[in-house]
Amino acid sequence: AEKENILKDLHDGIGGITTNIKLLAELAQKQDELSVVKRSLSTIADLSQESLSEIRNFIQSLDAKELTWQAIAAEFRSLGNSIVVPHGVTFSLDVRFGEETGGPTSSVSMNLFRIYKESLANIIKHAKATAVDVRFSVEGGRVSLEVRDNGVGLDRKRASGRGLVNMKNRALGMNGNLTVTTDKGTRLRLDFPMP
User: Fold this and answer.
1) What is the pTM of this model?
2) Which fold has domain 67-195?
């Protein structure tokens, strides 16, 4: 079941991105207007970068020997610095670990990364935030991830959007719960039992 989940994630993630790249390239070939072609090429470049990131996450998730909660926290820090900081948004990460032993399964780590990256991408795209504060803890047999921003909050349309539904489904797949509250910014909280 673990292998099937990972393959499904690979198909959904990289498969969808590759399809978009192909469609954009085909549209660009039919365009005469240079500005439209340039816009398509810019989007293709962004999607290619996203695809490389997906492949990297996939390879990491296959190498179960490397999977520790500490490694996930380090990757969270790296992703925050590469996704959030270049947009002039301050980023902080607070990490707490209890005495728990063992690490995440491949599918749990992949779901965690997907939820985390989606939440950061949403902040950059929509929130107009100046600060992002992340808290990640593994203690008392539970794992929790909280991502807060000080932006404009979540409107009703985005609150019921596909991205959020996908994140909630991923949380359910980990026997967890994902909640989003919005008041003077947005707070996403994921909580699930240690696998």
Assistant:
1) 0.71
2) Heat Shock Protein 90 (3.30.565)
